[in-house]
């Protein structure tokens, strides 16, 4: 592999991404874990920039690092679940997780280095690939119907979320504390 | 593969679904505006909306002869999709009518709106010709059904049903999605028909392809509640609001079959000598397990749950036959099963409102308390058992005939033996209804007009399908021909 600026930056970022992921796992405070995840998402979005997909990179930042993580943090703080405690089942769970993760890394490593699938075999992408224009063309032409169906799916899910949580709130509002 | 470019004419193909979205919005809006006392009409409005959608489908959305792939190849406008879409809309209409006086769900706009969402999802499941569209339609249907199953939040059993259904469904759906991703990885295609072309000629090793096929089968098996993916159904059927149990048992199962038939026959025709016998084995286990476990049930909803597992087994025989007759028989079977099961559940809904329980023992004396209802129950259960001159007889007749035609005589024999076991427990229920007495024999069971209409429609359909089966089977054959 030729050493150039891109490679150096790649390895720096990779170290940051892995560091953030490890920090996410090892942190005992859920808020810290969530913030590590934000860092991880942000670094991964830079990788998308390297892969000539600027639009996906921005989506990664706004949707994942932005909207979804804010929701996570909100829920964590609302429930007061900042501090995690390892339960009795924690030890064999983490042992199993380590084994599975090692297996996964092994498979990935095998595919990347020994299976003979070389990165050169991947086709070059056209200019404009992954850009908002192409994405928009695809989304609103070929994938128009799935796009519309997704909106229906989200609507149904939203109605469901309201239905499943509404009664609990009205009941607690009219509970013993609310009575004169 | 090139697809027809968009022209406004293709919007007519999804006009029924567009109308259903409008009805759902209307129902949600009126739920806010109308006072509690008027909201009973929401169910009638929903049923009317389904009727309208069926009418629009018949007038504007008839499939053209060349079965075009429309909307960028996302859906196929063919006879199979049309048949199933009408069936889903019909089931939706009946279930809406059966819901209008059902405690806890009847006066809630959200309930009907989510139900309409489920039907739209099913319609697109039947028509989907692309993995992305298929998965989204599957999820739209499933998420709506999880919600409906757990709709009675105050009732622990309903909450359990919703959660259990959700966990099982999410798990199997993830596995199916993994299968889809493998298929995409092998070929770089998501369109079912492009996939089919790409897989032809064995460019993908059979072993890898079979893994993808098995993973995809998990999710479809869950939807049709085939063994070994049936564990959810008794608990969900028992806990869900009874109209929704009826809905899941007919429409959701039929939708599962619609995608199962299309994906298996369109994407994997090359390796059908591998999955044909597999489907036959699944069908045997599904029939036998469903029927054997149904024998021991004391709760009518659980009994019908196991019965519906067994019924899925019979329909699978049609697919295992790997022929156009077999597929036509499976489609026709699903039609007869849909109308029959709706009658049966209609009676269960009405009876449990007065009896206050779903125990079979409490159905004693039903024939004296409401002769009409008992008669509808008789029609439904005998048709499920496959007695002539009711719909279920011809359903099973065509299925077994297709199996024999395909040289699967042993499978047909196992099917017939299972039908006999099935008939035994259906007759046991009828014995309680007709021969046993209870202290409340003189209390009649009121039948509101909406329910009478729903039951009458379905019972008439059961009798028509059982006496004049030929035109309907012709329609099913026509639908099946669009897969070959």
Account of the protein in words:
Chain A is mostly helical and 180 residues long. Chain A has a domain at 5-125: NADH-ubiquinone/plastoquinone oxidoreductase chain 6, subunit NuoJ (Four Helix Bundle (Hemerythrin (Met), subunit A), Up-down Bundle). Chain A has 6 helices and no strands. Chain A is globular. Residues 171-180 of chain A have low confidence and may be disordered. Chain B has 484 residues and is mainly α. Chain B folds into 2 domains: 1-267, no CATH class; 284-484, no CATH class. Helix content of chain B is 74%, strand content 1%. Chain B is built from 19 helices and 2 strands. Chain B has helices at residues 15-33, 41-60, 79-99, 109-127, 131-149, 156-187, 192-199, 206-224, 232-239, 242-267, 272-294, 300-320, 324-355, 366-369, 371-385, 391-405, 409-435, 449-467, 469-481, and strands at 69-70, 75-76. In chain B, strands 1-2 form a two-stranded antiparallel ribbon. In chain B, a hairpin with a 4-residue loop joins strand 1 (69-70) and strand 2.
Structural class by sheet pairing and helices of chain A: mainly alpha
Shape of chain A: globular
Q: What's the overall average pLDDT of chain B, rounded? A: 92
Number of strands of chain A: 0
The H/E string of chain A reads HHHHHH
Q: Output mean pLDDT of chain A.
A: 80
How helical, in percent, are the residues of chain B?
over 70%
Structurally, the number of domains of chain B stands at 2
Oligomer: heterodimer
Q: Any idea what the CATH superfamily of the domain at 5-125 in chain A is called?
A: NADH-ubiquinone/plastoquinone oxidoreductase chain 6, subunit NuoJ
Sheet/helix structural class of chain B? mainly alpha
């Amino acid at each position: 592999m030729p050493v150039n600026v891109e490679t150096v930056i790649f390895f720096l970022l990779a170290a940051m991404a892995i560091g953030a992921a490890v920090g996410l796992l090892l942190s005992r405070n859920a808020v810290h874990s969530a913030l590590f995840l934000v860092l991880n998402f942000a670094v991964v979005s830079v990788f998308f920039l390297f892969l000539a997909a600027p639009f996906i990179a921005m989506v990664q930042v706004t949707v994942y690092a932005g909207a979804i993580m804010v929701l996570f943090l909100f829920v964590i703080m609302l429930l007061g679940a900042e501090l995690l405690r390892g339960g009795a089942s924690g030890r064999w769970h983490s042992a199993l997780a380590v084994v599975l993760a090692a297996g996964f890394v092994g498979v990935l490593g095998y595919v990347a280095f020994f299976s003979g699938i070389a990165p050169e075999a991947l086709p070059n992408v056209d200019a404009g690939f992954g850009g908002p224009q192409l994405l928009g063309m695809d989304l609103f032409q070929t994938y128009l119907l799935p796009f519309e169906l997704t909106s229906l799916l989200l609507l149904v899910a939203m109605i469901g979320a309201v239905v499943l949580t509404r009664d609990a709130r009205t009941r607690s509002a009219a509970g013993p504390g609310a009575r004169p | 593969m090139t697809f027809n470019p968009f022209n406004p004419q293709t919007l007519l193909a999804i006009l029924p679904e567009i109308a259903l979205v409008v009805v759902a919005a209307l129902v949600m809006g009126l739920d806010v505006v109308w006072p509690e006392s008027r909201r009973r009409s929401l169910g009638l409005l929903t049923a009317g909306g389904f009727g309208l959608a069926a009418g629009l489908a018949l007038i504007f959305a008839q499939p053209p002869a060349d079965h075009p792939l429309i909307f960028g190849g996302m859906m196929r406008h063919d006879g199979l999709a049309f048949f199933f879409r009408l069936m889903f809309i019909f089931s939706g209409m009946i279930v809406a009518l059966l819901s209008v006086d059902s405690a806890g769900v009847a006066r809630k706009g959200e309930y009907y709106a989510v139900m309409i969402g489920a039907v739209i999802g099913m319609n697109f499941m039947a028509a989907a010709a692309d993995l992305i569209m298929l998965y989204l339609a599957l999820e739209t249907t499933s998420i709506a059904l999880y919600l409906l199953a757990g709709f009675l939040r105050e009732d622990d059993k309903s909450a359990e049903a919703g959660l259990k259904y959700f966990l099982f469904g999410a798990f199997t759906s993830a596995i199916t999605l993994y299968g889809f991703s493998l298929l995409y990885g092998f070929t770089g295609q998501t369109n079912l028909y492009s996939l089919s072309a790409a897989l032809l000629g064995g460019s993908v090793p059979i072993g890898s392809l079979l893994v993808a096929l098995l993973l995809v089968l998990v999710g479809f098996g869950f939807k049709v509640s085939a063994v070994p993916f049936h564990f959810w159904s008794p608990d969900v059927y028992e806990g869900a609001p009874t109209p929704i149990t009826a809905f899941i048992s007919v429409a959701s199962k039929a939708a599962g079959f619609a995608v199962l038939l299309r994906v298996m026959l369109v994407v994997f025709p090359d390796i059908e000598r591998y999955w044909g016998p597999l489907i036959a084995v699944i069908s045997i286990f599904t029939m036998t397990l469903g029927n054997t476990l149904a024998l021991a049930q004391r709760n009518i909803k659980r009994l019908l749950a196991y019965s519906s597992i067994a019924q899925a087994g019979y329909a699978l025989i049609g697919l295992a036959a790997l022929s156009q007759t077999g597929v036509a028989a499976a489609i026709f079977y699903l039609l007869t099963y849909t109308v029959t099961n709706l009658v049966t559940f209609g009676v269960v809904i009405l009876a449990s409102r007065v009896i206050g329980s779903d125990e079979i023992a409490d159905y004693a004396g039903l024939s004296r308390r409401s002769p009409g209802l008992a008669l509808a129950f008789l029609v439904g259960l005998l048709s499920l058992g496959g007695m002539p001159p009711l719909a279920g007889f011809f359903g099973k007749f065509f299925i077994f005939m297709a199996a024999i035609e395909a040289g699967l005589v042993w499978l047909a024999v196992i099917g017939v033996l299972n039908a006999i076991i099935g008939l035994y427990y259906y007759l046991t229920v009828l014995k309680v209804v007709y021969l046993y007495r209870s202290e409340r024999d003189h209390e009649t069971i009121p039948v509101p007009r909406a329910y009478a209409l729903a039951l009458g429609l379905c019972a008439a359909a059961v009798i028509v399908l059982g006496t004049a089966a030929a035109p309907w089977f012709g329609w099913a054959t026509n639908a099946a021909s669009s897969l070959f």
